[in-house]
Amino acid sequence: MREVVEKKVLSENDRLAAALRQRYRDEGILCVNLVSSPGSGKTALLEKTLAAFPKDSAVSVLTGDLQTDNDARRLARYGFPVRQIVTGGTCHLDARMVDRHLNEMGFHGPGILFIENVGNLVCPSSYDLGEAAKIVLLSVTEGEDKPLKYPGIFHRSALMILTKTDLLPHVEFSAELALENARKIHPEIDTIALSSRTGEGVDLWMTWLGVLQQKVQHQTAAAIT
Amino acid sequence: MREVVEKKVLSENDRLAAALRQRYRDEGILCVNLVSSPGSGKTALLEKTLAAFPKDSAVSVLTGDLQTDNDARRLARYGFPVRQIVTGGTCHLDARMVDRHLNEMGFHGPGILFIENVGNLVCPSSYDLGEAAKIVLLSVTEGEDKPLKYPGIFHRSALMILTKTDLLPHVEFSAELALENARKIHPEIDTIALSSRTGEGVDLWMTWLGVLQQKVQHQTAAAIT
Lengths: 225, 225
Fold this sequence. Notes:
Two copies of one chain form a homodimer.
Chain A: H1 2-27, E1 29-35, H2 42-52, E2 59-65, H3 70-76, E3 82-86, H4 95-105, E4 111-116, E5 133-139, H5 146-149, H6 151-156, E6 157-163, H7 175-185, E7 190-193, H8 202-224
C-alpha cells in the first residue's frame, strides 16, 4: 500500500519534472540542484558563486528548508532574485514546489537557476526537479564512506564537490579515498575540491558551470533551428 | 491520499513502539536513539562509549544505514553485540526493524541498547522506536542554525550533543548561539559539548547515561512491586 502510493507520488513528480525540463530547454535555462547533508556548505558555496557573477547576470536561486528563511536572507544580499521554499515537514523539494515558486517569482530564461535542496542525503535523490545536473556536496568533516552509505545521490549526481577543504589539516580525511568510493558508485562522476572560506576551487566550479551552460544553450539552439 | 497512508504508517509504528517500550520497561532496558546528519560523529561517539564500559556490561548496539555494514564492523571491535540494519532506500529506522533485529540477536535486559539511526535530521524524528530518549548530535562544523531549520528532532530530543569540539578553533561556530537556538525549540533540552577525538565531554555523557539508566531501573522496579 505504502509502496503503491510512493510510486504514484514519484511518477506524478516525474511528469511535472519533465515539463520543467522542457521549459528550461525552451527558455535556455541551466538548472542545477545542490544536495548534501545539513551543514555541508551549500549556502556558503552559493554565496561565493553569486559573488562571482557580474551584477547584471540572469541568475536566480530557490532554496529549500523545513523551516526559516535564513538562507534566502543570506543569499539575497548578492542582489539576485532569491526565493525561500519552506517545506514544513517534507524532507526534500519536489517538482510541484519548484514550478509554483518559479511562476510566483516570474522567472524566465535564458539564465541560471540554482536550487538548494533540503539538507538530506536520502530523500532528495528520488525527486527529479527537471535539473540539468544534480550536484552533491560532501564536506571533509563527514568521512570518506558517505558515497557507499548513501549511494543513490552519488549515483545520480554529475559532480561531487568536496567542501571545507580548509579543514583538511585538522581532520582525518582522505580525499583520494572519498573519490575512490564515489567512483565505485558512479565511475563518471566529476569532482572538485573546494573551500568557500579560502576560495580554493571556486574558479574550477565556475568553469564547470560555464561548460554545462554552453551545453544547455546548444540544446536550446538546436531545438529552435 | 499520501497523507492518509503516512498517518497509517505512523500510527502502526506508534503501536509497535509502545510494545517495544513496554518490553524495555519489563526487562529493565535503557534504550537511547542517536540521530544526526550524516557524518556528525554518531559512530565515533559510540566507539568512545563502548570503550568506556567494562567488558562484561550488558550493552548492545543496533546501527542503521541505507547501505554497508561499515558501522557494525567498526563497533564490533569493542566486544559487545552489534547488529547492522540495512534499510535499503528507507531514510530512517522504524519500530518493526528494531523489533525484528532485537529478536534475531536474542537481546534481553537488563542492560543498555544503543540505536544509531540513519544519518538524517528529518525522517527519524517522526518514528518512535520505544526509546527512553532521543539524542541529537550536532557537529560544530554544521552551523548554529540547525535547531531552527530542523526543529522536529531538536524538539523531541532529551539531549543535544555538540560534537567535534576539537575543531572549534578552526571554524566559525558559536556554541552559545547553537544552544540558544536549541532552547528556542526545546527549552528543557540538555546539552553536552564533546570531542570523540580528544575525549572532552565523554565523562559527562557517561554520567548523563548513568542517571537515565537509574531512572529506567526505578520504573522497572516500581512496575514489578
